[in-house]
Specification:
Bound molecules: adenosine-5'-triphosphate, magnesium ion
Radius of gyration: 25 Å
Number of helices: 10
Shape: elongated
Distance between the termini: 55 Å
CATH class of the largest domain: Alpha Beta
Largest sheet: 10 strands, antiparallel
CATH superfamily of the largest domain: P-loop containing nucleotide triphosphate hydrolases
Number of strands: 21
């Protein structure tokens, strides 16, 4: 395993229109760290991995892997993929169809002439790690999708490379298998740490696996930190939206009352200073309640009148889609996720078409200025709960 250092990496594509896929990206990855890259489609995740692997040539910047400079635009250094000791597990598993599982897994050892590892049972040992030891003599066509995915994992890990790159390696698996392979991967990394960059679209995967998590936008990293920090303290609205704070209330203090989306918010205290007369609050669907009446608001809670547009049963929870009950509003939807058996979070029955109050404690939300940057706002002050 190795420390990885990416400095001012730039990769553009000429196409129509030209694209800056990786935009002067800086990234340091510690030895043994499992770094998760999260970001919307097209933000440059795959291109970053391909530059690390040597499959794309960046325009400028540098990449160091351990003590080896593998790319440097200024010095004209660009090592070919086979000269970089990197394992890759990509979304399309690309197993060799004519080779058995054993030969597929052994391939990186053979091509790097790691004969000691080959002869000491490394292939069998790695296959066992991903629960594939009974499949060694089969061809890829004789495997299920999930089994192929696990073989691809074993192939990426077998040579104990300096760095392992994963590009959405679990996205082709069904939910149960995805959880299983994710747990195996986490356990494996805990037992035998290796340096990894793992791209995913799946937030729960990112939270579960990452030593650190990086959120990308348009070829750059917007926020990087331990998953808990990124999840709980997003630096801006983009990250907040990306990590599940989907309810957005732009609050405005006008003539002594708070409004959001054209409707009044009950229960919020007047702003402490002029600077907080307008801000945006973001709330997770799990952090709001639905009550029948404004009189049902708890001490410290604020509320806004909503119309229930739809209710979906989700087993352990109900997903209630609401919109602000003002006729001329743009019907911005709000989402409440209510535990099915918790009557304190919503009345026993919530039905489509009902008029209700969406209740929230501002301390459970995160606030942002009108440019979308996180505010260090004493949220408690808004509710007056401390004063009360
Ligand atoms: N070979 C190419 N030629 C031209 N443009 C490309 C090429 N490869 C990628 N791009 C562009 O570069 C940008 C980044 O692409 P990339 O594949 O890195 O995105 P991504 O974050 O992996 O997205 P996804 O989540 O959809 O896989 C996109 O705008 C894409 O259209
Ligand atoms: Mg991609």
């Amino acid at each position: 395993m190795s420390h990885v250092s990416i400095r001012q990496l730039l990769k553009n594509f000429d196409g129509k229109p030209p694209t800056v896929a990786v935009d002067h990206l800086d990234l340091e990855i510690e030895d043994g760290e499992f770094l998760v890259l999260l970001g919307p489609s097209g933000c440059g995740k795959t291109t970053t991995l391909r530059c690390l692997a040597g499959l794309e040539q960046p325009a400028s910047g540098s990449i160091t892997l351990g003590d080896q400079l593998v790319f440097d635009g200024d010095r004209g250094v660009n090592l070919t993929p086979d000269k970089r000791f990197i394992g890759m597990v990509f979304q399309s598993y690309a197993l060799w169809p004519h080779m058995t599982v054993r030969k597929n897994i052994a391939y990186p050892l053979k091509s790097r002439k790691l004969t000691d590892a080959l002869n000491s049972g490394r292939v069998e040992e790695t296959a066992a790690l991903v629960d594939c030891e009974r499949l060694l003599d089969r061809l890829p066509a004789e495997l299920s999708g999930g089994q192929q995915q696990r073989v691809a994992l074993a192939r990426g890990l077998v040579s104990h490379p300096d760095l392992v790159l994963f590009d959405e390696p679990l996205s082709n698996l069904d939910a149960r298998l995805r959880d299983q392979v994710r747990a195996e991967l986490h356990d494996l990394h805990q037992r035998k740490p290796f340096t990894a960059v793992f791209v995913t679209h799946d937030q729960s995967e990112a939270l579960a696996l990452g030593t650190r998590m990086a959120i990308m936008r348009a070829g750059q990293i917007v926020q990087i930190g331990p998953p808990r920090e990124v999840f709980e303290e997003p630096v801006d609205e983009y990250v907040a939206g990306f990590t599940g704070m989907s309810n957005r209330l732009p609050c405005e203090y006008v003539d002594g009352r708070w409004y959001a989306l054209g409707a009044e918010i009950f229960g919020m205290q007047p702003p402490a200073g002029a600077s907080v007369g307008s801000f945006v609050i973001r709330l997770r669907p799990e952090k709001v309640r639905l009550v029948a009446d404004a009189a049902d608001l708890r001490h410290g809670e604020a509320g806004i009148a909503v119309h229930v547009d739809d209710v979906e049963y989700g087993g352990l929870h109900l997903d209630v889609m609401c919109s602000v009950a003002v006729e001329d509003s743009a019907r911005r939807q709000l989402h409440a996720r209510i535990p099915t058996h918790d009557s304190s979070r919503a009345p026993r029955t919530v039905s489509r078409g009902a008029a209700m109050i969406l209740a929230f404690d501002p301390i459970d939300g995160r606030t942002f200025d009108t440019d979308g940057r996180a505010l260090a706002l004493p949220q408690r002050a808004l509710t007056g709960a401390l004063a009360g």
